Automatic annotation (TrEMBL):
Protein's recorded name: Glyoxalase
GO biological process: response to cadmium ion
PANTHER family linked to this entry: CADMIUM-INDUCED PROTEIN CADI
Residues in VOC domain copies: 2-117
NCBIfam families found in the cross-reference section: ArsI_CadI_VOC
InterPro entries: ArsI/CadI-like, Cadmium-induced_rsp, Glyas_Bleomycin-R_OHBP_Dase, Glyas_Fos-R_dOase_dom, VOC_core
Length: 156
């Protein structure tokens, strides 16, 4: 069964953990010095926050987390059918987890990831170069054009 994923950049991790723990009525499943994650069943969501110097605050990206390779293949087929550039990251370490993942941006530049978590990691990991996912519909100098997450933004 798939799980919706949201990753939010925050300015104060402790205050945000307290807020989201109250909002969700649950403590995070994972807490690190710069990161926290809730794996909720009601609503079924993987909700993560991180406090990174070089990351924007607010929603960083959205995603679909799957439970097995068959579901991942289904979601990857959907990404390919969306007729948008797909960044196939493959096996990677991100957000203290080992994952298999790919990325896509919608026509307005909202970045989505599809991923299967395959284990824990002791490091936060890196971020892919999202430049290939820029929206072809948004002129670079347009007012209020959606921006693609910068390459230095944390992942999730």
């Amino acid at each position: 069964m798939k799980r919706f994923h949201v990753h939010v950049g925050v300015a104060d991790l402790d205050k945000s953990i307290a807020f989201y723990s109250s909002l969700f009525g649950a403590e995070p499943a994972v807490v690190k010095a710069d990161y926290a994650k809730w794996m909720l069943d009601d609503p079924r969501i993987n909700f993560a926050i991180s406090m990174r110097e070089d990351a924007a605050k607010g929603i960083e990206h959205l995603g679909v987390q799957v439970e097995d390779k068959a579901e991942l293949a289904q979601v990857y087929d959907r990404l390919a059918a969306a007729d948008r550039p797909v960044l196939e990251e493959g096996a990677t370490t991100c957000c203290y987890a080992k994952s298999e993942k790919s990325w896509i941006a919608d026509p307005d530049g909202v970045v989505w990831e599809a991923f299967l978590t395959e284990g824990e990691s002791i490091t936060y990991g890196g971020s892919p170069d999202f430049d290939r996912l820029a929206s072809a519909n948004a002129a670079p100098d347009a007012c209020c054009a959606p921006s693609v997450v910068p390459a230095k933004t944390s992942c999730c």
